[in-house]
Structures are given as C-alpha cells and as structure tokens.
Amino acid sequence: MSVEWLRRLRRGGPAERPGGARESAPRSPQPAPVPQYRRPKFLRGEEEANPRGGRTVRGTGPERPLPWGSGYAEVINAEKSEFNEDQATCCQISVRRKEPGLEEDQEWLILCSTQFLTGYYWALFDGHGGPEAAVIASNYLHYCIKQKLEEVAGAIVEARPPMHLSGRCVCDSDPQFVEEKHIHTEDVVVGALENAFQECDEVIGQEMEATNQTGGCTALAALYFQGKLYVANAGDSRAILVLKDTIVPMSSEFTPETERQRLQHLAFLFPKLLDGEFTRFEFPRRLKGDDVGQKVLYRDYFMEGWGYKLVEKADLKYPLVHGHGKQARLLGTLSVSRGLGDHQLKVIDTNIEVKPFLSCIPKVNVFDFALRDIKEDDVLIMATDGLWDVLCNEDVAHMARSFLAENRTNPHRFSELAKSLVCRARGKKRGHQWMLDDSQEASYDDISVFVIPLHNRVEDC
Fold first, then answer.
1. CATH code assigned to 3-15+32-254+360-453
2. Domain spans of the chain, in order of start
C-alpha cells in the first residue's frame, strides 16, 4: 500500500467502493489537508462540552457497542495542553489473499466483511507536540496492518510458512530450513505488524511534512487473529492481561532509560549524530567542572553494570540520556524512545535531529488462547501512561477483579470498569490540585483505557 494511495483515500480521491463503484475524483489538484483534531469515531454522540471544568470522563455507551462488548473511557489532561492528545481506534479487520498483479488503486479496504480471515483490532496513540500525529496514526495504522497481512496471507493460512510465498520449491530442503529456524505462522504475523508500524511511520512523516505540522505519538495496538492475541507496543503505554489467578504483562515500556544501551550504541557507531553537543556516557548526575580529573561512576553501551571513568572535559557535555523515571529524557527532549512521527523534531537551538534515535518498530508479545482456560472475568486492559503513572499493575488488576465480580449481571460492566479506572487515576479536585483517594497526587495527563473481555472473543477468527 503506497503513501499516495492512503492520501487519496484520506482526501476523498478515487477509490473503489464495494461492488466496483467508484467515487469521482476532483479534477484540480488538492492541497494536502491539515490533520483535523477529533475524538475517536466510536465516541460520536458523546458531548465534549466544558472538558476543562471538571475533566469529565467520557466513555462508550450501549448505543455504540464495540467488538466483543469492549469498554472504553477517556479524560483530558489538567490543562497541560489545549487538546486531548490521546487517540483510540477499534474495528474489525478482514484479510483476503492478495492476487498477483492487482493494482493498489483497484482495492477497497473492507473492514467489516465476514468473507475473509477476520481479525479484531484495538489501538491507543498518545501524542506529544500536538495531537496531529496521533490523529493520523489512528486513521492509518489498521489499514497498514490489513495490507501487510494480505501480502503474506498465503503463508499465514499454512501450518508452517513456506520458504517461497508462491509455494514454489527451489530447493528440496526448503521445508527443513524453515523448520530449523523455528519459523511459525505467528512469526509471519509479527513481521506483518512490524512492517505495518514502519509504513505508518513513513506515512506520518510525509503527511506532517506536507501539512507543515510537527509532533509524534506512541502506539499500542492489540490484534486478535487466528486464535492468538498480538500486542504491539512502541512507546510507554501498557497492556496487561488480568486473568483469574495471575497478571500477564503484554507490553514493555520504551523510554530513554529502558533503551539506554541501544541509544548509546547508536551514538558510538555514529558519533556525528550528537554533533559534539552531547556525551553518550551515563553518569549518576550531570558532571561539573570540579569532577574533571576524578574517577566517577559511569556506564557505556556495552555495560549493564557500572564502572569508574577518569573524567575528561568532554564528559561535561549534556548526556544523551539524562534524568530518572518520568524525568528521563532523550537528548534533553523526549521522554520516550520509540513511537511514530517526530521526523522534523530537533534539539532546541541546535541542528541535531532526534528521529535517528527513535525507533518506530514495536515489540510484539503473543498470547495463545489455546494454552489457557479463559474465564468469564478475564480481560485485557490497555491504557496510556496517564493511568500507569499513578496505578501499578496490581492496583488495576485488583480493581478489575473486584468490580467485575460485583457487577456480573450488568451487561455494560466492561464500559463501566473502563470509566472507573479513568476516574480513579484522574482523582478528585481539591482546591487547585487533583488528588487520589489516598491523598497522593493524581494523574494530570490525558488518560485513555480499553477493557477487552476475552471470554467474548469470536472463536473462528
């Protein structure tokens, strides 16, 4: 799927409708549109009036049910930015085998067909530097995933992926080589997700450049496909499975701290990326002039542990990774090390580009439903960092289990649980502050939460 094809789809250009009918294309060239701020499509009808006053929690209702009866809720930040920079998408994806020679502009992406391999998709995007990148990602990533799955559909319907997608056998030992590499169908699906994130990142870069916009976003996507749950994460949002007797983390956060070694190694291989303004070494604190000539604790890209280094004048430069926890920053600029967008981002007052250090490739975790006996109250909880900043996995799991057990007869309990989680993390306003029930500071960030019941899954996907 080309970037130009996606642009035509978004601008209302020629695209084939189901049944072969086409929309007529505008005769004169159209300028690239500025991404329009909006809330998730499935929240249409929910008023966003006076979002600032009480940070009203918005959520899905019975009139717009989501796949599997999933619940969703969100709340805007406490005046950190003008807009809610989180975005969310939820839909059904149909995958067909792509016929050789089929031109891209002859395709119509059918998201709700039962004729083909069917998957279910949920995604959260947490924007920074504005909501534009998150809006584009919420519009495009599922199209990219559908296309990448269709490109390998011939392999994912096989018990073991063939060496050649065409089925041709050039070498009699091809099946043996595939087996020796332990390549399974789920590995091809993982590869399709990774490729989809890569292509979506390219789309965002070109769209943002064309519209003279800046910014980026994290991306957390869940895909249920052929009996397995794939969770792909690029950023600091999080997904956990809350099962009856355990919690299964389905994602890992990617921050300057967690990816320190990758970032330092890149700076070691390509020192010009730092333009002489930063040091790749990590120190417990920012070094001062009096530290020169002393041996101090440090870490380099090849080190899990700490060593001692004789401080030179060059070590006084600002560190590539600096700060701790939520205050950690990459090049003094970003608090995440993976995500989509940020192609135009530069370190303030320099020509140093941040994008080379950012990875758009997600880490994908897979959960096989065939290996678990899923219970009625087992759920996948996905949320942006606004929730996890103030609630740990155990807090969220305890609240989910208690709420669902107490509301077993409520047909909308998953939506209500999503709202309850957002309300708890948002806290209550006391004077000028937002506080949790235990008098700790609540989350001032945008908060978005999906609660996805696993017992309601469609078995034949």
1. 3.60.40.10
2. 3-15+32-254+360-453, 260-335
Q: Which residue has the tokens 């031109």?
A: 103
**Bridge-partner residues for 234, per DSSP?**
219
Whole-angstrom Cα distance, residue 168 to residue 175?
Answer: 11
> Given the DSSP bridges, would you call strands 318-319 and 278-279 parallel, antiparallel or unpaired?
parallel
Write out the two tokens for 351: 């020509």
Residue 359: how many CA atoms within 13 Å on its side-chain side? Answer: 19
Q: Shortest CA distance to 93 belongs to which of 122, 125, 124, 130?
A: 122
**Cα(19)–Cα(108) distance, rounded to whole angstroms?**
10
**pLDDT tens-digit readout, 318-375:** 999 999 988 999 999 999 999 999 999 999 999 999 999 999 999 999 999 988 889 9
Q: How far apart are CA 72 and CA 88, in angstroms?
A: 9
In angstroms, the CA 377 to CA 413 distance is 10
Number of neighbours of residue 199 by Cβ within 10 angstroms: 22
In this structure, the number of other CB atoms found within 10 A of the CB of residue 349 comes to 7
Q: Which residue in this structure is represented by tokens 């029930």?
A: 437
Grouping H, G, I as helix, E, B as strand and the rest as coil, residue 97 is coil
Q: What CA–CA distance (Å, rounded) separates 57 from 84? A: 12
